[in-house]
User: What shape does this take?
Amino acid sequence: MANVYMDHASATPVRKEVVEAMLPYFHEHFANPSTVYDMGSKIKQVMDEQRENVAGLIGAKAEEIIFTSSGAEANNLAVKGVSLARQKKGRHIIISAIEHHSVLNSARFLERLDFEVTFLPVDEYGLVDPERLSHVISPETILVSIMHANNEIGTIEPISELSSVCREKGVFLHTDAVATVGKIPVDVNELDVDLLSLSGLSIGAPKGIGALYFRDNLRLMPVIHGGIQESGRRAGTENVPAIVGLGKAAELAARELTETARHVKELRDTLVTGIQKKIPQVKYTGHPERRLPGHASFCIEALEGESLLFMLTREGIYVNTGSACASKALKTSPVLVAIGTPPDLAQGSIVFTLEKSNTAKDVEYVLEKLPHAVEKLRALSPIWKKKVSN
Amino acid sequence: MKFVENQLSDATLDLVCRMCPLHLIEPGDKLKCLKKGQVLEVLTDYDGALEDIPAWCEKCGQEFIGLEEDDDCYKLYIKKK
Assistant: This one.
């Protein structure tokens, strides 16, 4: 049976070069980087080289990178860390209505500590309006967190414009760039952000590793307390093999980004055109142009995304209905609700995220199997029957 | 404890929100970059540093000038000897 994996936003396979780079750090070079003897200090040096690689991918300086256990931890550290460190200056933060749960739930946690949180609405494409942001910033505002691109609808936010607003008002801006780093060019200076989160699992590094960029030594209250690893900002003995993996994946991503983006965009465009041609009553969600190159998301009328996902799985096609973290909840996606999708249509959500390893044959296979699966499900749907009889 | 006001400094080390015992490690590294007689300002929100840093200066042969309290942190001044 075919095996067509198009859920790279959930996880990417760890690249062979990355595994090879990591292997010596399990057995041969296993020492704790905090130790003062040479076995440890050599590892510390290797970690600093990886920090350079990660920084290089996003135009940052090595000392502005903190390694974390995931993109989610990086988001927690950014949102909670800045808010708690700056609470004497103000207790208001702003996030968009379509943030990842690690930003959303960090903000909700801060609400319990009597911070005020504004959830900024987005337009029908998922875009945050800079003017609207400007209106909700108050003298009490200390942090704005807006994702670089949304993993469910692929829309890329106008971060540079949003950062101009924040800069003018003297407020820090954090962006969750888990969906964009390694997929499109990301430069912290061009975006002019103060903090940026990234994750290994979306760029061919292992799960369990991420990083937070923070500008110019800005103050961050640690989320994990303990030793003085990561310059006293994030405790816990470093996951050296994973850090080496992230560094290698960052190096490869920097080298291959342009070609990979061109390849996946071409495949994505064929997929989108094909789906729109072959399946009636589908809504392409997210922004039509301002979106991630390998990302296609739809709401298909009169069916449930989960049922479609299972039918496709039987054909060896792996996709998602939304974000990997939220899809099990069987709840209408808050992202789709935020862009104004009617709840019944939002049930039919399906998301394709393509990578370098995908081929034109994969797309052809999906375009062959998907319309049949939709047809079968709609044949069982009373909503669909009612619709066609009208 | 000796208090100072409007003390000038040649370099600042911001350790606010950063974990103990970093206040006993980073001043030494930072002082290496300064010349004799220059002053390092250490910002910290850790109460323990008020005892630790003067003691560290004595042990390491540096001069502890004094302390100033700010809105959100302490400022400790060390002169390189």
User: Anything to note?
Assistant: Chain B has a mean pLDDT of 96. Chain B touches chain A at residues 14-22, 25, 71-72 (CB under 8 Å). The CA atoms of residues 42 and 58 of chain B lie 16 Å apart. The helical segments of chain B are 26-32, 49-60.
